[in-house]
Design goal:
Layout (H helix, E strand, L loop, with lengths): L5 H10 L8 H15 L16 H7 L5 E2 L2 E4 L6 E4 L5 E7 L9 E4 L2 E8 L2 E7 L4 E7 L7 H10 L21
Antiparallel strand pairs: 1-2, 2-3, 3-4, 4-8, 5-6, 6-7, 7-8
């Protein structure tokens, strides 16, 4: 059997290879579909927290919203993690160390207490009084800062609160004499 001639190969490409039924345009369409299905954005690489395998994290993760302040949820690589926005404007890690009493600012949004830390262009919110604790890191942007803890509250509040934030008004007045 002799090798096919160049003219036969070209004719097969133009008319489609009758032996396999696959044409070059079909292959190109399949390749484009594969790219479209796989998505254009890669998964966000987030390191899992030490207690990420805590069953409470599964409860939280299964109730997280698809969007927060107009930011769409993205796929992540770490267990018990989530991210919203492209680039990620909001990153969540469940299973971080449970914070003890602190002098850092602590506020309540929709029944969930959050310890707030700011550093440069990021704000870190850590749930307070619930185990496992959840950390949320967001870009300091007042346009969606309040929407983030409000949107996460329904998922975080599924875990029972064992402690609450206290403020100056909650502390007994001590004698000055």
């Amino acid at each position: 059997m002799s090798a096919p001639r160049v003219e036969e190969l070209r004719r097969g490409q133009q008319q489609g290879d009758r032996r396999s039924g696959i044409t070059l345009p079909s292959i190109a369409i399949l390749a484009l579909l594969a790219v479209a299905v796989s998505g254009c954005t890669a998964a966000v690489d987030i390191k899992a927290a030490p207690d990420a395998s805590n069953p409470g994290c599964a409860t939280i993760l299964s109730h997280l919203p698809d969007t927060i302040a107009g930011l769409s949820r993205r796929e992540t690589t770490g267990i018990s993690t989530a991210a919203w926005g492209s680039p990620s404007g909001v990153v969540l890690r469940c299973g971080v160390a449970v914070p003890g009493p602190t002098t850092l600012p602590c506020g309540t949004v929709n029944g969930v207490d959050w310890i707030v830390q700011e550093s440069g262009t990021t704000r870190t919110l850590t749930s307070y009084g619930r185990t496992p604790a959840t950390e949320v890191i967001l870009t300091v942007d007042d346009s969606h800062a309040g929407a983030v803890p409000a949107a996460l509250g329904s998922a975080i509040s599924l875990l029972p609160a064992t402690r609450r934030c206290v403020g100056h008004a909650d502390v007994l007045a001590l004698p000055t004499d």
